[in-house]
Amino acid sequence: MDKTAPTFWHLPIPHTHHLSASAGALSFVGGAGDFDATGRIRNPGDLDRQIEGAIANVAEALAVESCGLDDVVRLKAHYTADRDDWEVIAALARFFKADPMPAISTAPEPLQPFSGQTIQIQAIAQRGWRTHSDVRAVPRPVPPQRQALFGGRTVTAGLRAGEFIAVANRTAEDADGTMQHPDDGVAQSHFIMGKHAETLAALGASFQDSVKMEGYYFGTTREQWAPLAKARMSHFREPGPVATVVPCHRLNPKKALTKVEVMAMRELWNGFDKYIPREDHWPKRVWDWVFPTPYRQAIRLRDTVWLGGQVPSRPYSNTGLRVMDGQLMPQTRFTMSYIEDLLRPFGRAPADLKLMVCYFTSTGTEAETVAFAKTLADCVGGALPPMTIVPKPMMHTEGNTVEIWGVAQG
Q1: pTM summary value
Q2: How far is the C-alpha of 214 from the C-alpha of 233, rounded, in Å?
Q3: Residue 42 CA neighbour count, 13 Å, CB half
Q4: Which one of 131, 147, 177, 267 has the lowest number of neighbouring Cβ atoms within 10 Å?
Q5: What gap in Å lies between CA 256 and CA 398, rounded to an integer?
């Protein structure tokens, strides 16, 4: 064996894990960081160099699925640094030379999963979408004071690559960089959803085509969560998408109280944009929300199964109460049992997951991340899928320590 042969990067965990995978027409890379072949961060604490290393690792992982950076439709970065979102978006965009650039979502975080890490990058790609006949993009207004960061390039608010649509996450910041409704999270939610509706309409779609909604809000009580949740859900009708909304601990710019993004699927048929029917299952054991919502827990279309964010809520109920309060590992195992329940009616299992996004309570040590990954590996029962692992100082409440969603091969 040639010991000088290059070795792929990997996460600093002892468990077998995939760096990329595909479901239907989409390919996924989980939380790629500036890791070397030993799983160590090459440039601890240096955001700019870590972005360069992480993007190189994204490209390396995508190549395994016969994709390149030009095939990325949606990019998401969880970062920990004294930068604003526009600076991070610009730093990422320079590695994507072709226009339109991907829809880039950013989430500032106080913690990262591994020592010395300042950013992890998740990618969703579709092979060859730039050669398809149906490519549409909607520009995202950049505040005048931040436009120089992009050297005249157009930033993408929403991108349609054939049937797959990605709308970048955003706060209630307007085109001039002014935060709308600075003290009103409900009004900010409606502002954001209104802008997303405009973007989707320009792409020939609507919220009814959404397959995934993901958002962030400040708060650790049901009273803080519920008004914003009701504001968001009012923009959907049943059957809606699957959803994941978790607490945030930082947002840019100042006075932003929430941030939301959506992904959707819609087909072009005989020259008309058409809704794509989806199959959904909701086993009775799987929890429900405390008030009626249009969201689903699991939907399948185009050989992909999309899961809503699963939490350790009591089964067979909509009480909002948790099981195993405050116990991360037992709650993680329990939450993974919900994922198993949701995949079973589709004839799928956790081993069919091609992307897993995990939020969990942590004090920020690498040892906690490694222990959490071990529990995930035990529950998946094989090689872990590409993963984005996001430690949080606190989740929804002290009793709830984890939320997990994913995409499976359908």
Answers
A1: 0.97
A2: 12
A3: 17
A4: 131
A5: 23
Q: Would you state the torsion angle of the CA atoms of residues 221, 226, 232, 235, taken in this order, to the nearest 10 degrees?
A: 170
Helices (H) and strands (E) in the chain, counts: 6, 18
The label of the residue with tokens 């279309």 reads 301
Distance CA 328, CA 305 (A): 26
Q: Are 102 and 138 in contact (CB under 8 A)?
A: no
Whole-angstrom Cα distance, residue 387 to residue 20? 9
Q: Are 24 and 276 in contact (CB under 8 A)?
A: no
Q: How high is the pLDDT of residue 65?
A: 98
Amino acid at 120: Q
The stretch 161-175 carries a mean pLDDT of 98
Rounded distance between C-alpha atoms, residue 46 and residue 65, angstroms: 29
Give tens-digit pLDDT for 257-274: 999 999 999 999 999 999
Q: Supply the pLDDT for residue 395.
A: 96
Are 241 and 300 in contact by the 8 Å Cβ rule? The answer is no
Distances (CA, A) of 332 to 199, 254, 288, 388: 36, 33, 18, 15
CB 308 within 8 A of CB 399: no
Pairwise CA distance, residues 382 & 17, whole Å: 9
Within 90-238, strands assigned E span: 103-108, 119-126, 135-139, 156-161, 164-170, 210-217
Positive or negative torsion for Cα 368, 362, 38, 125: positive
**DSSP per-residue letters across 255-269:** T--EEEEEEEEEEEE
CB neighbour list of residue 131: distance below 8 Å, 6 or more residues apart = none
- Note the pLDDT of residue 1: 38
**In terms of DSSP bridges, do strands 164-170 and 353-361 run parallel, antiparallel, or are they unpaired?**
unpaired
CA angle 109, 294, 338 (to 5 degrees): 65
The token duo for 21 is 């995978």
Q: Specify whether the CB–CB gap between 205 and 266 falls below 8 A.
A: yes
Q: CA-based angle 180:182:188, to the nearest 5?
A: 55
Q: Which strand (E) or helix (H) includes residue 69?
A: none
Packed helices 328-343 and 366-380: angle between N→C axes, nearest 10 degrees: 30
Q: Mean pLDDT of all residues in the chain?
A: 96
Preceding peptide of 292 cis, ω within 30° = no
Report d(CA 293, CA 392) in Å as an integer: 26
- Per-residue pLDDT tens digits for 201-253: 999 999 999 999 999 999 988 899 999 999 999 999 999 999 999 999 999 99
